[in-house]
Design a protein that fits this description.
Its main location: Golgi. Its cofactor is NAD(+). Its EC number is 4.1.1.35. It is an enzyme of class 4 (lyase). It is a single chain. By secondary structure, the chain is of the alpha/beta class. The chain has ten helices and 15 strands. The protein has helices at 38-50, 104-108, 121-139, 175-195, 219-228, 248-260, 277-287, 312-318, 326-329, 331-347; strands at residues 2-4, 9-11, 29-33, 53-58, 77-81, 94-97, 142-148, 199-204, 207-208, 233-236, 242-244, 246-247, 267-269, 274-276, 294-297. A hairpin with a 4-residue loop joins β1 and β2 (9-11). α1 packs across α6 and α5 (219-228) packs parallel to α7 (277-287). The longest helix has 21 residues, at 175-195. It starts with a strand and ends with a helix. It binds nicotinamide-adenine-dinucleotide and uridine-5'-diphosphate (2 copies). One uridine-5'-diphosphate is lined by residues 104, 206, 217-219, 222, 234-236, 241, 243, 277, 299-300, 303.
Length: 350
């Protein structure tokens, strides 16, 4: 696989170069909510490159204009600052609904006692998804929800198949996210059954890559940033809990295959390679800085002990599987992280 550092376009096994909209396929207009975020901005790159028109809706809660600024000036790209909790009127063919404050540090910024906080995960997941489904229903657009492996909670089944109903604490600190996405899935199926909206549901497993939020508390971004800053990597608990890490270009390919395919889902989209946090720290050490050290910290409540997708359904029905291993993917995010960390330090006058 090769990787273009400048515009983060990926070419895997001869893969996804610039493809003009061919004869027989009409150019579509596509909304990406959360399109200024990590996953959303890579999706936007792929859709624009493919030749479609893209409208990004984002309130910049965790996303950044920088992630999409290379499209500014392109008449096929539009950026709307808007909170999906509020209704919006648009005319489009497809809606990729990603908007959601999605990382542990950001949960903690929120004041759960106040109903005035618009960025509460639960409220965004419920009202944002409802509005996007209402929009899809009114204009007959296809709707794709980015749900999460967190719907499985602290799973009692391993690896997780789409048929597993999950093990979630409904009143825990993570429940705004877990239950928010579970409700979003319910709404999606409601609009499908009740209003004939054509829907797709992706259950995304831990994903990493360039443009991930720095310091948002996710483990890959933490370890990579810590290794670059020559700080110890913070391993929570005993570090024996597991996750499966997917490179962002694999996810984006999966999302597009799902949207374009015939099947509603839900589909697990993740890389089945399973690592303990200690093993992850080992890989970061190996590929980024052999002198990197680790430091143990107390773990957070309700932390799932293990997680690994069973992706047989996506393999069979979407003809999709991830191509980039952790060892191949981590180096692809290092330059982006280094540059942003450098700019941050310069900004501080260091
Ligand atoms: P991200 O935080 O980088 O992107 C989310 C985007 O949504 C940001 O640009 C943010 O500003 C925007 N947003 C948040 N609330 C909004 C609101 N009320 N109105 C409009 N925009 C809003 O996160 P990401 O990793 O790119 O995640 C994208 C989607 O994928 C999310 O729905 C997330 O739940 C899902 N997901 C991601 C992962 C992962 O590992 N990255 C795993 C599972 C699921
Ligand atoms: N909605 C929207 N844009 C549209 C259509 C609907 O934002 O183009 C919102 C609408 O304001 C409502 C939600 O989507 O809050 C659900 O719409 P629906 O028509 O399904 O429900 P209703 O308005 O009948 O309660
Ligand atoms: N984690 C860690 N050190 C960190 C951040 C996270 O050891 O600096 C652990 C965390 O306890 C969890 C795993 O890494 O077991 C994945 O955490 P993350 O927040 O990235 O994703 P999620 O828990 O949502 O899968």
């Amino acid at each position: 696989s090769s990787y273009n550092d400048k515009d983060f376009s990926f070419r895997v096994n001869g893969g996804t170069g610039r493809v003009p909209v061919g004869v027989g396929r009409k150019r579509m207009r596509i909304v990406v909510t959360g399109g200024a975020g990590f996953v959303g901005s890579h999706l936007v790159d792929k859709l624009i490159k493919r030749g479609d028109d893209v409208i990004v809706i984002d309130n910049f809660f965790t996303g950044r204009k920088e992630n999409v600024k290379h499209h500014f000036g392109n008449p096929r790209f539009e950026l709307i600052r808007h909170d999906v909790v509020e209704p919006i009127l648009l005319e489009v063919d497809q809606i990729y609904h990603l908007a959601c404050p999605a990382s542990p540090v950001h949960y903690n910024l929120l004041d759960f006692d106040s109903f005035e906080i618009l960025n509460c995960d639960y409220k965004t997941n419920v009202m944002g998804t409802l509005n996007m489904l209402g929009l899809a229903k009114r204009i007959g657009a296809k709707f794709l929800l980015t749900s999460t492996s967190e719907v499985y909670g602290d799973p009692l089944e391993h690896p997780q198949k789409e048929t597993y109903w999950g093990h979630v604490n409904p009143i825990g600190v993570r429940s705004c996210y877990d239950e928010g996405k579970r409700t979003a899935e319910t709404l999606t199926m409601d609009y499908h059954r009740g209003a004939n909206v054509e829907v797709r549901i992706a259950r995304i497993f831990n994903t990493y890559g360039p443009r991930m939020c720095l310091d948002d508390g996710r483990v890959v971004s933490n370890f990579v940033a810590q290794a670059i800053r020559k700080q110890p990597m913070t391993v929570y608990g005993d570090g024996k809990q597991t996750r499966s890490f997917q490179f962002v270009s694999d996810l984006v390919d999966g999302l597009v295959a799902l949207m374009e395919g015939e099947h509603i889902g839900p589909f697990n989209l993740g890389n089945p390679g399973e690592f303990t946090m200690l093993e992850l720290a080992g890989v970061v050490k190996e590929v980024i800085d052999p002198s990197a050290t680790i430091e143990f910290k107390a773990n957070t409540a309700d932390d799932p002990h293990k997680r690994k997708p069973d992706i047989s359904k996506a393999k069979e029905l979407l003809n999709w599987e991830p191509k980039i291993s952790l060892q191949e993917g981590l180096p692809l995010m290092v330059n982006d992280f280094r540059n942003r960390i450098l700019n941050e330090d310069e900004g501080k006058g260091n």
